[in-house]
Amino acid sequence: MELESIKRIYAGYSGVYDALFKRFFYPRIKHAINYMDIKPGDRILDVGVGTGLSLPEFPKYCKVVGIDLSTEMLTKAREKIIENRLDNIKVISMDAMSVGFKDDSFDKVFISHVVSVVPDPYKVMSEVKRVCRKGGQVVIVNHFKSKNKVIETVEKIINPVCKKIGWRSDLCLTEFINKSGLNVNEKYMLKKLDFWHIVFATNEK
Ligand SMILES: C[S@@+](CC[C@H](N)C(=O)[O-])C[C@H]1O[C@@H](n2cnc3c(N)ncnc32)[C@H](O)[C@@H]1O
């Protein structure tokens, strides 16, 4: 998907995103952040922060920067920052495939429901690894294609439609991990039959 199409689609979603998706996305976001080993003073990057569903979950004793392509989604995230008085968090407009931070700027990187939205997930992961310090934590929450053959076939069939509404449904977790060069500590789904995986990895440069 082209960046301009992504911007247009998520500008459209911004007003209804929480009403449509919070019930699906928020439980895994909350779980993943609560299981991150966040220490006082940790510098955290939230890639594709969207409307900021994740933001109230981060402890006040860490510093968070959220980046996103969509100014409309970021407006919603800023509303949450003000409402919840999240003085330790700022959000800025930035392309995750070309992150404007120096190497090793962050201790932890959180990426939820983004790697199947961006045109090139491996470019994003390369940027994530660059800006995260060696030994830092990378946490991904995302849909990956099912290992169940029937569901996988359905996901393949609906992929063109999914792409039109803002994401792809055919990303393979094993391929994603291997091509990203992620050193995975844990990967699991919250329920036995779930569409989303949670991946905890240590950043090896
Ligand atoms: C499905 S939403 C996920 C938002 C949030 N992380 C969540 O879990 O609710 C995908 C987000 O990725 C953003 N996005 C897509 N491509 C991007 C890119 N290249 N750089 C930064 N953000 C991007 C979109 O604007 C959108 O806000």
Strand content: 15-25%
CATH topology type:
Rossmann fold
Which strand order do you get reading across the main beta sheet? 3-2-1-4-5-7-6
User: What is the CATH H-level superfamily?
Assistant: Vaccinia Virus protein VP39
Helix content: 25-40%
Give the topology string: H per helix, E per strand: HHEEHEEHEHHEE
* CA-based shape: globular
Count of structural domains: 1
> Low-confidence segments, ≥5 residues, pLDDT <50?
none
Count of distinct strands: 7
CATH class: Alpha Beta
Number of helices: 6
Mean pLDDT score: 94
User: What small molecules accompany the polymer chains?
Assistant: S-adenosylmethionine
Structure description:
It is built from 6 helices and 7 strands. The chain has a 7-stranded mixed beta sheet with strand order 3-2-1-4-5-7-6. Strand 2 (63-68), helix 3 (71-83) and strand 3 (89-93) form a beta-alpha-beta unit. The chain is globular. It has helices at residues 3-13, 17-35, 71-83, 121-131, 149-164, 173-180, and strands at 43-47, 63-68, 89-93, 106-112, 132-143, 183-188, 196-202. It has a single domain (3-143, 170-202), classed as Vaccinia Virus protein VP39 (Rossmann fold, 3-Layer(aba) Sandwich). The chain has 205 residues and is of the alpha/beta class. It binds S-adenosylmethionine. S-adenosylmethionine binds at residues 6, 10, 25, 29, 48-50, 53, 67-70, 73, 95-97, 112-114, 117-118.
